[in-house]
Amino acid sequence: MSPLSTDTIQALSHVHAKPDNIRFQYGTAGFRTLGNILDSVLFRTGILAGLRSKKLDGQTIGVMVTASHNPEADNGVKLVDPYGEMLEASWEIYATKLANAPDLISALEDVIRDADIDLSKPSHVVYARDTRPSGPALVAALEDGLKVLNVDARDAGVTTTPILHYLVRAINTKGTKNSYGEDSEQGYFEKMTNAFKKLVAGRPPRDSLLIDCANGVGAKAAVELSEYLGDSLPITLENTDTTTPGVLNNMCGADFVKTTQKLPPSLANKLKPGQRGCSLDGDADRLMYFYLDERGQFRMLDGDKIATLVGSFIGELVKSAGLEDKIKVGSVQTAYANGASTKYLSERLPVRCVSTGVKHLHHAAENFDVGVYFEANGHGTVLFSPATTDRLREYQPSTPAQQTALEHLINLTLLINQAVGDALSDMLLVEVVLAHKNYTGIEWDSLYSDLPNRLVKVVVADRNAFQTEDAERRLVRPEGLQARIEELAHRYEGGRSFVRPSGTEDVVRVYAEAVIRTQADELAFRVAGLVYDTAGGDPARRPKEFL
Ligand code: G16
Description:
Elements: H1 6-15, E1 31-34, H2 39-55, E2 60-65, E3 74-80, H3 89-100, H4 104-114, E4 124-129, H5 135-148, E5 152-158, H6 161-173, H7 185-200, E6 209-212, H8 217-229, E7 235-238, H9 253-260, E8 277-280, E9 287-292, E10 298-301, H10 303-320, E11 329-334, H11 339-346, E12 351-354, H12 358-365, E13 370-374, E14 380-384, H13 386-394, H14 400-415, H15 423-437, H16 441-445, E15 453-458, E16 467-469, E17 474-477, H17 481-489, E18 496-501, E19 508-513, H18 517-535
The structure holds 1,6-di-O-phosphono-alpha-D-glucopyranose (G16).
1,6-di-O-phosphono-alpha-D-glucopyranose (G16) is lined by residues 28-29, 68-69, 281, 285-286, 356-358, 375, 377, 379, 502-505, 509.
């Protein structure tokens, strides 16, 4: 085992000093907080990424510098494991330990001993960042961390989170039976758009899709995508300003649409009634669809609507291919899933509910032959198990109709980014289903009616005081609060509400749904008020609706 170069670590830790009195936590999507306090975290994460790669015999680990849907002043960093999945949970503890260690060298020695890491092994890392202004400085700190272990590092530049995940998987599977594609952006776009073109071949031309790029890195990727798509899908890009300070995710993007249930004001005169529109988030891993109905009313098609559309379509293809006895399609949701979507899906597929966070959904989806997972916020994908992929490759259909369905399924395995939820890949997937069904947004929307729902954020003194159980559907702490929430929810027809601490923002989230719109809103704000009063919220940030 080669020793740690303690002199280098000491010198660089001095340059990237840890701020006092701040405790960092590797949460739902890595470290995420104000960008201007993250320098030491990035430096330390660089070292951790090198250690993780050494632990895995030099396989390439990904590092993404982003705060996704959060405000522009926030930033963050997360590690990506070799197949493009989220960092293994046991290493999240090491990440948090290193980020907070007063004595970095002794913490590193602990981790190396505990995880049994051979420092003489090689290490490879690929990293990227989104368009946030704090990105370049944070990447420089990360690079200093990578130098500590002489990591062989590749800078993937400014790109989306899903492209970084794709690159990690492509690099690690290169030359193997499970090769995921060329390890370049070009490889990513070609793989996806070639499959898309085959899937929509012979279908009537579609009218233009309007894409709200959240003024983030998705704008850059969407421009490239449109070149690869050619005329197979006409798209119009909006909110593509990645240089004006303050505009990222501001009054636009997938999180704005989901939480306000409104059209971004910047699209007001651009989206025509009946036209399909969609919003990406700041790093292009979430997708929300929408349209204006004939009365000009905004209608949202969220992650639940995507899951039901896609899950049913894949289930039908499996059946048409004659594979329904051999391939089981299942779906994974979280407590945020609209009750109506769960009902619709459960009548067609097995459905599981897990805690918020892609890593939970991803792992649960791996238990199905084909696992369709989407969070209501628009984050999700479809996983085909390795055995299913082999089965599709080897299957001999007995009729031309089975052959066609089989080809569609195989092309879907290429279109879908199975490494992680990917707004652009998901968008093409939705477009494929709409083209096959000859649906507009209106027909898609009419598959089932959402129960009116409302999501509210409450700023409290300590969100860690909130603890949950049963896939976050029930609060265990603060004691007594759950019973009061239930008591309130029972007063409304179809009332359901739950409360959980966010893993990406310093807030507690309150969700409520009910049969009638005004009642869903009232329930949400009454529960939010309860949370506020129990936990001592910040008066300056008390949600206006329950003042
Ligand atoms: C991240 C996670 C998602 C999660 C979201 C919100 O998304 O990857 O799985 O749903 O945060 O989490 P929370 O409610 O705990 O704040 P993103 O798009 O911000 O990376």
